[in-house]
């Protein structure tokens, strides 16, 4: 199991999908399973129109984009029809055991701790899991991310690795790195202001 954690634009999803396609082509696994939590920017599947495929597609679009950079759409459709590539919301993983699979959990910052544990315990024999996410982009209502706490829980467990990407690793337009830097500086100022306010209140007390 590999956790790839870092800001937007560092290629987390793209690299994970590239590795999954490579494993499938070399027959190291029998299938690829791609999943995301279906709660982003305040939307939930139940409130979106259409059948399940129509509901799922918008959430999985970044995964589709990465795949279509590597294989033709016709090959993707064939692999999907034969069950070699599967895409589904995270909730659909419950109760399954994923053997001989390369499993990618994308946007993992939008999982709760319970969902994260559920996903990690789906892993079966001869399988590999890559979990990607950016802990600065949490869309959960309570803001408590299962990805944020997982390092403290699983760091040092044999078979689990953590890769932390930085803004220097951004591979999109250079402006993206500068935007990330600006937001990081703003958050730092907010933290310092809160700490200063707490110190003042404590001294007055």
Descriptors:
single chain; 205 residues; alpha/beta; Rossmann fold; two-stranded antiparallel ribbon
Number of domains: 2
Q: How would a crystallographer describe the biggest sheet?
A: 6 strands, parallel
Mean pLDDT, nearest integer? Answer: 82
Secondary-structure element series: EHEEEHHEEHEHEH
The share of residues in extended strands comes to 15-25%
CATH superfamily of the largest domain: P-loop containing nucleotide triphosphate hydrolases
Gross morphology is: globular
Remind me, CATH topology of the largest domain?
A: Rossmann fold
The beta-strand count equals 8
Low-confidence stretches: none
Structural class: alpha/beta
Number of helices: 6
Distance between the termini: 49 Å
CATH-defined architecture of the largest domain: 3-Layer(aba) Sandwich
Helix proportion of residues, in percent? 40-55%
> What is the CATH level 1 assignment of the largest domain?
Alpha Beta
Strand order of the largest sheet: 5-2-6-7-1-8
């Amino acid at each position: 199991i590999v956790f790839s954690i870092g800001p937007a634009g560092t290629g987390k999803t793209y690299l994970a999908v590239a590795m999954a396609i490579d494993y499938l082509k070399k027959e190291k696994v029998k299938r690829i399973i791609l999943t995301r939590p279906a709660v982003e920017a305040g939307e939930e599947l139940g409130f979106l129109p259409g059948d399940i495929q129509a509901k799922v597609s918008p959430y999985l679009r970044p995964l589709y984009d990465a795949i279509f950079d590597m294989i033709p759409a016709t090959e993707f459709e064939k692999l999907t029809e034969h069950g070699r590539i599967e895409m589904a919301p995270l909730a659909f993983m419950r109760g399954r055991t994923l053997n001989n699979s390369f499993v990618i959990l994308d946007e993992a910052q939008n999982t709760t701790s319970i969902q994260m544990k559920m996903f990690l315990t789906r892993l079966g024999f001869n399988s590999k899991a890559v979990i990607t996410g950016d802990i600065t982009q949490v869309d959960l209502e309570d803001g408590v991310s299962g990805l944020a706490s997982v390092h403290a829980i699983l760091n040092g467990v044999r078979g689990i690795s953590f890769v932390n990407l930085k803004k220097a690793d951004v591979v999109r337009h250079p402006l993206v790195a500068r935007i990330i830097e600006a937001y990081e500086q703003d958050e730092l100022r907010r933290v310092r202001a809160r700490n200063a306010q707490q110190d003042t209140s404590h001294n007055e007390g």
